[in-house]
Amino acid sequence: MEPDALVSLVHLHTPFRVRSHRLLLDGWDNVVLLANGSHVFRFTRRPDVTGQLRKEAQLLPVLLRRLTLRVPVPEYTWTSGPLPHFMGYRLIPGEQLRASHLGDSGSRVASSLALFLTQLQGVPLGEAGDLVPRHTGSDWRCLYLVLREEAQRLIAPRLSSAAASDLLWDLDAYLEDPANFRFGPRLIHRDLSSDHILHDSATGSLTGVIDWGDACAGDPAFDLTGLLSDYGTSFAEAVAAAKGDPPEYLGRAAFYARIVGVHQVLHGLDVGDGAHVGAGLRRLETVYA
Predict the structure, then answer these.
(1) What is d(CA 96, CA 37) in angstroms, rounded to the nearest whole number?
(2) Mean pLDDT value of segment 117-135
(3) 245: nearest Cα among 113, 135, 138
(4) What is the 3-state secondary structure (H, E, C) of the chain?
(5) Which of 7, 62, 114, 280 has the CB geometry, 3.0–4.6 Å to 242, for a possible disulfide?
(6) What sign for the dihedral angle of Cα 223, 226, 229, 231?
(7) pLDDT in tens, 47-80
(8) How far is Cα 26 from Cα 263, in angstroms, rounded to an integer?
(9) Distance of alpha carbon 105 from alpha carbon 126, whole angstroms
(10) What is the rounded distance in angstroms from the CA atom of residue 7 to the CA atom of residue 101?
(11) Looking at domain 95-287, which CATH architecture does it have?
């Protein structure tokens, strides 16, 4: 997708006029442009990504009313006709929060994220819209039964025998413990990581959370996963403590973090990205060495 052709789509379907633009991302799911230095436009590459965009367009106005941290606010959305479809929203200032940025502000950031998660998981599911998937504990287990089957069929043959055996054992142990599925579904971001948490580098304060395409109602422990992977155990523990999560949340988050490579491999196979597949396999070999 050429940026100039994408700009023409914006002009055709919205009153917004692009005077300048810069490519922010040319990814497998989306192409993202910054227009006029003020607005972000995301263009979808596949129908399933358009489905995520429609969900975001429905959910984000609800989150705007419920959350203290900023989220993208859709101003322009076009999801009919041929691909690519797109959504445009005003740029949220800030840069991605990496572990190296925490420094002395770590405890303050942990408290801010605990408040964010409390607010998010307190959103009544009836307000979230009919495009947000809802998973009871039983539904959630079914998702991981399918994942286990795909791991055995598509991933285990690509791993060393030791890593494959340990991965499948880990999945089985998770599936066989009924306590892992005794939760009330809560609204979760489902990809809360350093890529999607923004902060002000001058003040250390959080400025927003982006990329809500994976949001669903499910295991409230899940949103600790990216925090655990990207910022470490102590930080994730601080967030969980400030939020008042039960101890088992961190245990489940640790499991979800161990199998991130499974999702990487399956996504890579789905979109034909060999580099993504290789990265996921290397991650699994490291985790299950």
Answers:
(1) 17
(2) 97
(3) 113
(4) CCHHHHHHHHHHHCCCCCCCEEEEEECCCEEEEEECCCEEEEEECCHHHHHHHHHHHHHHHHHHHHCCCECCCEEEEECCCCCCCEEEEECCCCEECCHHHCHHHHHHHHHHHHHHHHHHHCCCHHHCCCCCCECCHHHHHHHHHHHHHHHHHHHHHHCCHHHHHHHHHHHHHHHCCHHHHCCCCEEECCCCCCCCEEECCCCCCEEEECCCCCCEEECCCHHHHHHHHHHCHHHHHHHHHHHCCCCHHHHHHHHHHHCHHHHHHHHHHHHCCHHHHHHHHHHHHHHCC
(5) 114
(6) negative
(7) 999 999 999 999 999 999 999 999 999 999 999 9
(8) 20
(9) 36
(10) 34
(11) Alpha-Beta Complex (3.90)
What are 255's two structure tokens?
């499991």
**Is domain 3-90 in CATH 3.30.200.20, yes or no?**
yes
Cβ contact 63:201 at 8 Å: no
Which pair of tokens denotes residue 178? 């009924």
C-alpha 88/C-alpha 82 separation (Å) is: 18
The tens digit of pLDDT for each residue in 238-285 reads: 999 999 999 999 999 999 999 999 999 999 999 899 999 999 999 999
